């Protein structure tokens, strides 16, 4: 499966950010580069399920699309509201969860589901609801935590027993929930009747790099971002990625 074209280093990467912000910038930059070709023609009906405080939603609304964020957290929705007002764009915020999407059959041109499938309960059922909310030809952007990277992180921290237990585990672990492999994700998407069109790794090196290096080395964050763009679509580096980003389409039009 082809990956999205590697994009230019984008997103914030100034020297005044904390390491967690820098990792956020890497995620946003790589995901945005893949999403951009899908949001060039406005206006689209876009739903960001579990969209939280609306970082991506506001960015997409600024391109002229009709964007709705559905999230169970009233605090996140209040922050979304402030963010949208500050940016001078309209984003509809609705309190709800993945199940609420079932009321929106075949109504969206693009659905974002980033960092939500991990805590959704039954992933196959969630995928069916996500697929059902798309119009024919509509696209789904799915961002999930990858299991291989979590195994590597535990092993590198000396937690060998935890790494071993996680190897083949499809059970949720703590607040992080379920982690997926690329094969599992592709199977879920195909099972929901969607065609996967691109798959990339996100945060391939970002979580392995010591935060102090990004703090002290001038230009390190921008260089890391450039490297992340370059490796995102290379399958040989995919198992290292903390997150997998898959784009899929509903058949027809
Ligand atoms: C890790 S955050 C991701 C936020 C945003 N999508 C992003 O990528 O930055 C997970 C979000 O999913 C929301 N959430 C949790 N359970 C959910 C569910 N069952 N359905 C929809 N959203 C949910 C949380 O309130 C939170 O805003």
TrEMBL record:
<feature type="region of interest" description="Disordered">
    <location>
        <begin position="1"/>
        <end position="25"/>
    </location>
</feature>
<protein>
    <submittedName>
        <fullName>Methyltransferase</fullName>
    </submittedName>
</protein>
<dbReference type="GO" id="GO:0032259">
    <property type="term" value="P:methylation"/>
</dbReference>
<keyword id="KW-0489">Methyltransferase</keyword>
<dbReference type="Pfam" id="PF08242">
    <property type="entry name" value="Methyltransf_12"/>
</dbReference>
<dbReference type="InterPro" id="IPR013217">
    <property type="entry name" value="Methyltransf_12"/>
</dbReference>
<keyword id="KW-0808">Transferase</keyword>
<dbReference type="InterPro" id="IPR029063">
    <property type="entry name" value="SAM-dependent_MTases_sf"/>
</dbReference>
<feature type="domain" description="Methyltransferase type 12">
    <location>
        <begin position="47"/>
        <end position="140"/>
    </location>
</feature>
<dbReference type="GO" id="GO:0008168">
    <property type="term" value="F:methyltransferase activity"/>
</dbReference>
């Amino acid at each position: 499966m082809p990956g999205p074209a590697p994009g230019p280093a984008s997103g914030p990467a100034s020297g005044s950010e904390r390491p967690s912000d820098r990792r956020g910038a890497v995620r946003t930059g790589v995901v945005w580069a893949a999403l951009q070709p899908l949001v060039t023609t406005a206006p689209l009906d876009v739903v960001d399920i579990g969209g939280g405080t609306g970082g991506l939603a506001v960015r997409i609304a600024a391109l002229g699309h009709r964007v709705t964020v559905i999230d169970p957290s009233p605090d996140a929705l209040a922050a979304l509201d402030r963010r949208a007002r500050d940016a001078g764009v309209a984003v509809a915020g609705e309190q709800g969860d993945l199940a609420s999407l079932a009321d929106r059959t075949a109504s969206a041109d693009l659905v974002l589901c980033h960092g939500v499938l991990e805590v959704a309960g039954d992933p196959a059922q969630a995928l069916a609801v996500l697929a059902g909310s798309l119009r024919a030809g509509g696209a789904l952007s799915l961002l999930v935590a990858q299991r291989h990277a979590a195994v590597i992180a535990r092993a590198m921290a000396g937690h060998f027993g935890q790494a071993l237990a996680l190897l083949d585990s499809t059970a949720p672990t703590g607040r992080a929930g379920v982690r997926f492999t690329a094969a599992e994700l592709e199977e879920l998407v195909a099972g929901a009747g969607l065609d996967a069109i691109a798959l990339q790794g996100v945060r391939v090196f970002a979580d392995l790099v010591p935060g102090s290096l990004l703090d002290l080395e001038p230009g390190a964050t921008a260089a890391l971002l450039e490297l992340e763009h370059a490796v995102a679509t290379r399958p040989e580096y995919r198992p290292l990625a903390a997150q997998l980003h898959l784009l899929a389409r509903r058949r027809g039009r």
